[in-house]
């Protein structure tokens, strides 16, 4: 059988891994489950991603990039004339609008870094990048505190299944912003 050139295969494998984690959690992630989900030969997953950690790094990085784009698209966050707490709370509302699977997958991969050191630098990328952007409006310490607070609010909402409360988020974020 002749090999087919498939330039999108690597991306399909990453997308499949994200779907598998969304449906089965990290425990359900294997080269075999991803290959089946992506409808590719098992050898393709191991060719593109030698280890599951390599695959999780790629999936986490893709999630980081998606959330970074939502942040970058909110120009008001960089405008010193806007209410930063209100803008950040509204951004959280965007993240929780509709299906929460994307956020759940992102946090599951993020928390997997506790046991998988290969994921730690990528898990840290998002927080550092977000804090760097926020430091343009505040100071570095406050920016890091805001990122930690936003992470905490998101985790509480995901763990409890409660609706995201934008008004509450705005109030607590405003307490941290000088």
TrEMBL record:
Keyword Cytoplasm: no
Domain HTH tetR-type stretches: 7-67
PROSITE patterns (UniProt xref): HTH_TETR_2 (PS50977)
DNA-binding region: 30-49
Pfam families found in the cross-reference section: TetR_C_31 (PF17940), TetR_N (PF00440)
Keyword list, A-Z: DNA-binding
Annotated protein name in UniProt: TetR family transcriptional regulator
């Amino acid at each position: 059988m002749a090999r087919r050139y498939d330039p999108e295969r690597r991306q399909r494998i990453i997308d499949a891994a994200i779907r598998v984690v969304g449906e089965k959690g990290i425990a359900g992630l294997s080269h075999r489950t991803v290959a089946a989900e992506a409808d590719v030969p098992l050898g393709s997953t191991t060719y593109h991603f030698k280890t599951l950690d390599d695959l999780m790094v790629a999936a986490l990085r893709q999630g980081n990039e998606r959330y970074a784009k939502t942040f970058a698209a909110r120009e008001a966050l960089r405008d010193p004339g806007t209410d930063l707490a209100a803008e950040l709370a509204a951004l959280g509302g965007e993240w929780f609008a509709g299906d929460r699977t994307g956020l759940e997958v992102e946090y599951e991969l993020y928390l997997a870094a506790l046991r998988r050191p290969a994921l730690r630098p990528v898990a840290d990328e998002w927080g550092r990048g977000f804090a760097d952007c926020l430091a343009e409006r505040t100071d570095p310490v406050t920016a890091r505190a805001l990122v930690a607070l936003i992470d905490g609010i998101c985790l509480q909402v995901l763990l409890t299944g409660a609706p995201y409360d934008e008004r509450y988020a705005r109030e607590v974020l405003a307490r941290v912003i000088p």
